[in-house]
Amino acid sequence: MIELVNINKSFSGKQVLFDISASFTPGIPNLIIGASGGGKSVMMKSMVGLLKPESGQILYGDRDLLKLEYKELRELRREIGMLFQGAALFDSMTVEQNIDFPLKMFSKMNAEERRDRVNFCLKRVDMEGVNDKYPSEISGGMKKRVGIARAIALNIRYLFCDEPNSGLDPITSRLIDELLLEITEEFDITTIINSHDMKTVFDIGHNIVFIFEGKVCWNGDNKELKKAKNDIPELQDFINASYFD
Amino acid sequence: MFAKPEKFRVYIKRVFLEMYNIGVGSLPIVAIISIFIGAVTTVQTSYQLIAPYISNSVIGMIVSDSMMLELAPTITSLVLAGKVGSHIASEIGTMRVSEQIDALEVMGINGSGFLALPKIIAGLIMLPMLNIIAIALGIYGGYIAGDLSGILAPETFINGARSSFLPFNVLFSSIKSFTFAFLITSISAYQGFYTKGGALEVGKASTDAVVYSAMSILFADYILAELLL
Predict the structure, then answer these.
(1) Which of residues 56-115 of B touch A (CB under 8 A)?
(2) Which residue intervals of chain A are DSSP H helices?
């Protein structure tokens, strides 16, 4: 369980997050939706400790990320996996080396155990046989899958996905959505997804936080979303703009 | 940057990899430049020595001292500021703009320590070594040029070089290259690490790394000469 309590963040005097409070549950995909520039990425980067909010609490269970010492933060981060918008695979490493990297850095596994784990993760994301390819040799969708495999290589408890469908065709997008849903349920992890994709929102949005101009405008699940849009003009505009019914 | 490494063995491997990239990767250009600088110094010194009462062995003395005190450490470092500095800044800068450094940080890895520290250590080890090679090749270049062009006999060149040899000059040269190595690697890593934006900014970081490294090398060169000579 991750809980945000009254998070405020500004850049050069311009406030981008206003008293954000939200909670994210394990075992279901939690979605943060909203227009570009609305504060979704800032919120996610604050949650993983890449940005430091001015005030508030980011609670991982009973640990407040903003009050952790450097060593404690490093420990917490080993429970976190993140899929970046462009996958952020290490260019100089092969697919296998990318997935092996967190294992090599943080696990006590020997080389054979690590290789087995890498192959398990690749199989889990349906990407067997690409071990020796470099990121530049695989497609955008494949990079995202490898990014997910790298994120789950260690036994993580929290998975963050920053726009996992961006730049992907609709079929690959659905496959990524299904994969994220399966992984979330299978490993019972807290998955938080930033997305613009309304198909994703309606398909796997079990807990949706709608951000508008740096504020939480609405919170609910995909079943409540269609009803809620009639009451909240900002949400209605956002959904209607995607021509999704 | 100096936080305790997550896994020491991985850092050691990275230092060796960077030593290979910086040292072995730069050897050809350092060799070519040193040989030609030595050769040109011989020819130009001979051209300027028009007084008949000055022995030709002075050419050997000037070439070897110039290579040790100034040409090898400074020219080599300026060239490596371009080659190694731009490589470090663009590599780390590209990792920054493509969120690879964020990925490291999210994993709990100290990004600056993991990326910059092995490069700085590798530079501090390899540049003084390259400097020694540059001195040897520069003197050899001068020797060959003197012999081939008939300016002076090989024995005369060697006698001149030996007559003025001071072990302190080698130490001074090594101190200079050690200092320049730190400046090149740390300035370039800094420029790369704090890159913001996209491809254009990576190019700018790379250019800035070379410009600032070159300027700081020249400044440090003067300070070290004032302090140590």
Answers:
(1) 94-95, 98-100, 102-103, 105-110
(2) 40-47, 70-77, 95-106, 111-124, 140-151, 170-187, 198-204, 222-228, 233-240
Q: Kindly state the tokens that stand for B176.
A: 């200079």
Per the CB < 8 A criterion, the answer to whether A228 and A218 are in contact is yes
**Token output for B207:** 């250019």
Query: Which pTM does this prediction carry?
Result: 0.87
H or E, element range at B88: helix B86-97
How far apart, in Å, are the Cα atoms of B214 and each of A138, A187, A236, B32?
A: 39, 53, 57, 20
Q: Which two tokens stand for residue B17?
A: 């990899």
Q: How many residues are present in chain A?
A: 245
pLDDT, tens only, B149-202: 998 899 999 999 999 899 999 999 999 999 999 999 999 999 999 999 999 999
Half-sphere exposure of B55 (CA within 13 A, CB side): 14
Between CA B84 and CA B186 the distance in angstroms is 11
Q: How far apart are CA B121 and CA B119, in angstroms?
A: 6
Interface test with B, best of A71, A84, A152, A156 (most B CBs within 10 A): A84
Rounded to an integer, what distance in angstroms lies between the CA atom of residue A131 and that of residue A166? 24
Q: Whose CA is closest to A86, among B19, B128, B101, B164?
A: B101
**Residue A7: strand pairing partners:** A20
Instruction: Report the complex ipTM.
Output: 0.88
| A129-158 as b/e: b if 16+ CB within 10 A | ebbeebbeebeebbbbbbbbbbbbbbebbb
Question: Smallest Cα–Cα separation from A19: which of A9, A33, A32?
Answer: A9
Burial zone of B10 (CB within 10 Å; 0-12 exposed, 13-18 middle, 19+ buried): middle
Q: Are B77 and B180 in contact (CB under 8 A)?
A: yes
Q: Does A82 touch chain B (CB under 8 A)?
A: yes
Question: CA nearest B97 in A: which residue?
Answer: A88
Token pair for A183: 């992984």
Q: Return the bridge partners of A10, or none.
A: A15
